[in-house]
Amino acid sequence: SDYQQLGYNLRINLFQGGPLKTQTLMRDSYTPDIFQKAVIDPRHWHGRTISELGRWYEKYLLDLNVQKAMKEKYA
Predict the structure, then answer these.
(1) Do 46 and 67 share a domain, yes or no?
(2) Backbone torsions φ then ψ of 41, nearest 5 degrees
(3) Does any domain span residue 16?
């Protein structure tokens, strides 16, 4: 996430040498065999299919374009 990336960059800049390997709570909470058994289905991602995600991003980008156009028109 952006927050973790910012923290990582701050540690590198302030303390001259960030960790070579980052740890996450999820990786620390489960044994390695859980990740080996996991089956990744590219058509079903966290309960949403790719087409649903595509439609969501399409609406989101359309909304951003409308907001930008409204700013330019009324600013």
Answers:
(1) yes
(2) -105, 110
(3) yes
Q: What is the pLDDT of residues 12-35, one digit of tens each?
A: 665 555 566 777 777 777 777 877
Residues of the domain holding 59: 40-74
Whether 35 is covered by a domain: the verdict is no
> Tokens at residue 33, please?
């065999």
Would you state the torsion angle of the CA atoms of residues 38, 42, 43, 45, taken in this order, to the nearest 10 degrees?
60
Exposed, middle or buried by CB within 10 Å (0-12, 13-18, 19+), for 69? exposed
Q: How far apart are CA 44 and CA 42, in angstroms?
A: 6
Residue type, 5: Q
